[in-house]
Amino acid sequence: MTSTEIPELGAHVLLAIDTAIGTSVALGVDGRVFTAMSDDHRGHAEAIGGLLAAVFSESGVSPARVTGVIAGVGPGPFTGLRVGIAAAHAFALGRGVPLLPLEGHEAVALEALESGATAGVRVVQDARRRELFVTEYSGLDWAGIPQRSAGPGLVTRMAYEPVHNELWPERIPGAGLVRLAARRLVSGTEFADDRARYLRAPDVAQPTAPKRVST
């Protein structure tokens, strides 16, 4: 459990849930953000409940104070990503507050761009099956939001060519998601749509018509 100062929150109380890489939960309230994480890439459903309880307990904030729920929409694998998006949808619907979808790579790029990466950054994430999720950002706009210049896209490891300004995140930073959501709310910048960025077809076979039985 960690906490970080985020002055741009204002009066907003924002909950973030992301399951693109492991599971990240963050709660931004009263100028601070409390984060809890699990690095288990498979047990998202099992981890979310405990992580939610942890951030509310540590912050001393009631779930009733939440004014918006941030859903990490990927890119990420089908099995994991849908768990976090469904949880975010359920919490937002239950509280009657807006769903605020964000791409996780934007939060990864934020810290590097704020640290002075003026040439931009590339976020590279393991997509399994010898493939990578790749998104490029050119810099920050006037509201302090990373500007995407390419992607997100799916690239084979064999075809991938490294660059000096690439980032390989071990997890999607919940605090970054909260900071970006707060900046978008203050500036009136639109959020992403709530479509999950799987970037490939899910591993689910479509049902076929039953075979006819000959007589």
Q: Give the number of DSSP strands.
A: 10
What is the rounded Rg? 18 Å
The 3D shape can be described as globular
**Strands of the largest sheet, in order across it?**
1-4-3-2-5-6
Strand content: 25-35%
Question: Which residues sit in consecutive blocks of at least 5 with pLDDT less than 50?
Answer: 202-211
Number of helices: 4
Query: Which structural class is indicated by helix and strand composition?
Result: alpha/beta
Helicity level, as a percent range?
25-40%
The end-to-end distance, rounded to whole angstroms, is 66 Å
The main sheet comes to:
6 strands, mixed
> What is the string of helix and strand elements?
EEEEHEHEHEEEEH
What's the average pLDDT? 88
Write a structural description.
It is a single chain. This protein has 215 residues and is α/β, with parallel strands linked by helices. The protein is built from 4 helices and 10 strands; from the N terminus they run ββββαβαβαββββα. It has helices at 44-59, 78-95, 104-114, 174-187, and strands spanning 2-5, 14-18, 23-29, 32-38, 68-72, 99-102, 121-128, 131-140, 146-156, 166-167. The protein has a 6-stranded mixed sheet, with helices on both faces. The chain has a 4-stranded mixed sheet with strand order 9-8-7-10. The protein is globular and about 50 Å long. The model is unreliable at 202-211 (pLDDT under 50).
